[in-house]
Amino acid sequence: MAKRKTKYVCQECGYESAKWMGKCPGCNNWNTLVEEVAATGGRGNHTFNVGGKPAGKPESITSIESQKEPRITTTMQEFNRVLGGGIVLGSLVLIGGDPGIGKSTLLLQISSQLAEKQLPVLYISGEESTRQTKLRADRLGIKADQLYVLAETNLFDIAKQIEEVKPSLVVVDSIQTVYREEVTSAPGSVSQVRESTSELMKIAKTNGIPIFIVGHVTKEGAIAGPRLLEHMVDAVLYFEGERHHTYRILRGVKNRFGSTNEMGIFEMKEEGLREVMNPSEIFLEERSQGAAGSTVVASMEGTRPVLVEIQALISPSAFGNPRRMATGIDNNRVPLLMAVLEKRVGFMLQNQDAYIKVAGGVKLDEPAIDLAVAVSIASSFRDQPTNPEDIFVGEVGLTGEIRRVSRIEQRVQEAAKLGFKRVICPKNNLEGWTIPKNIEVVGVSTVQEALDIGVSR
Fold this sequence. Notes:
23 strands; single chain; 11 helices; globular; nine-stranded mixed sheet
């Protein structure tokens, strides 16, 4: 009898080794290499083709017919926006998030909406029985006849049911529970996740069926399993939010059919998730009037402008090294902006603790928020409030200049719609567009000019 071949695979990064090692050379994690049986023989390489064309034959780029990708739209406009306008046929979408955040609830609601349009949907649950899924459906008020539920983890049986039902959408919850019989490792291992996802991708591309797969996350918040999983799928969505708060954020970090910066906001209710059509009002509804250190910025999340409050607290330090803490923005941006205020404006901040927070739990990463952060720091340091009807937008350079930002017109229109009276923005952004009548736009060239206008002495 021939001796079977084994290999050791890292469960964090997918690194393969012929012998066991305590520390993975790929990701430097300890005790992550697990013994697996190497695949020998088998059915060989699988190929798939789309549109009935023979696989393996190259075509000239000029001879390929251009056509708009057909999409399936749901009744949740926030969900459609994150995906770039709807669900693309034949796409493979990965959704990750913390346990209990609402991933299964979101996908069950989406499945119900399509089933009510008489589009058959196959919901495959590897973690719950059909009765447990039925309990969630009753709580959400789902009574769609075209929504089919299957409790199965064997990929061969899943593929067989997809072939029989011929659904318009497939949901697999979750990919860590699915296994292939040909792979000897346990479900959730690197090999199982890679092979199962590869087979689901072939099913989606060959039959034109969109497939949503749910992925577990690690304690650091990243999707569990090999990084290859995120490369294989067409879109990666993260469902974020605090478990003890009602608001949830669906954020796209990869999308082959749309923007990668889109954000959809939902509110968790007893009857399920409800989309929030105007998130700016939600983020500003509890803003304190006349408080020092509070400013509002118009930030772009994909194609949508969102008004968010930035708060700063500057207080004398009781230790030798002052603290710099930030929530919702890059931690390295705070000392940089404080250094600009010290050098270019003359503030003595080297003995001050600085705490910066973006209200509402939103994460902002674009340079256009620099001016609002700098103004909030100056407002708290001087203990002088800013005008509550002002919006600050602009990128701050190291020499103290205010640089141009993108899509200034959409930002100003959103500010005017919510009743703000003045926008302080880079002077170079004032040309080439029409300013709305009910709002004033003031252009500034330096941080000193913005502080003279926005922060009273």
